[in-house]
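Side project, low priority. Logging it here so it doesn't get lost.
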Amino acid sequence: MNKETKETKPNDFITDEQSYYIQRTGGDVDECTTFPNICDANADCQNTDGSYICNCKAGYTGDGKTCSKAASSCNELFQKQRRSKSQVYTLMLGSRNIEVYCFMRDFGCGSGGWTLVMKTDGRKNTFHYSSSFWSDRKVYNLAGGKTGFDKQETKLPPYWETQFSKICLGMSNGNTTRFVLIRQSANSLYALIADGRYRPVSLGRNEWKSLIGPQASLQKNCNKEGFNVVSEYRHSFKARIGIIANNENNCLTCDSRFGYGTGGSNTCGNYDKYFPGGAKDIKVMGYILVQ
């Protein structure tokens, strides 16, 4: 059935003495009313001029014809729906369908579905240690969550919605991007950071430095690492995720820091106040993903 006639498509018209046609002039047919089951049970039918659209209901996603329950993480897509291609997928996060780029291959932290949480530029103050983005449930630049490892800053709903047992941290310095893995379980990254409490990890100073490579610098002592790490007296030496270090055998007056959401003008990367020959100040793009 269609709305074409012998006048609009004369070359396609075939005469047949046993057949007849009626040219409709009364306007558009509402397929949604005429064919009540034309859409999947998990979709709402929307009539359009000459056609219709099936809009998936909240919590479901699909191709416009069939709708299935939306996954809440990239790892769920990888494990349960056997999706193996890295691309933008629709996730159900809270009560919203959000398009997020899912990393399905091993880029440096192991295989499986990795959900992007945040991208932060160390040259900007967007995700400074004191920024409210670390303690609130507000998104920042949703479009940046669909573009992979680039220079667009973003904070996505997985920050407070997604459970995980692994965190993948990446830093891009020049043309090289390096990653390290932290095995840490939590209901969300928000749960580990938002209240400001220090929570230690045991990654090790050499692993942190490996994110930048040979150029990285950290003092030898203190090596306080984890979430919400803060020097007791030099308060610019702190990080939401990272490590602080000192030349003295304490954590009171730390001289160097490394991580994400740090203090000072370098908000992501490596800063060493007393690096031989002058201060070391390496600002990078940082990537935070969970699985």
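Brief comment: The mean pLDDT is 89.
Revisit when time allows.
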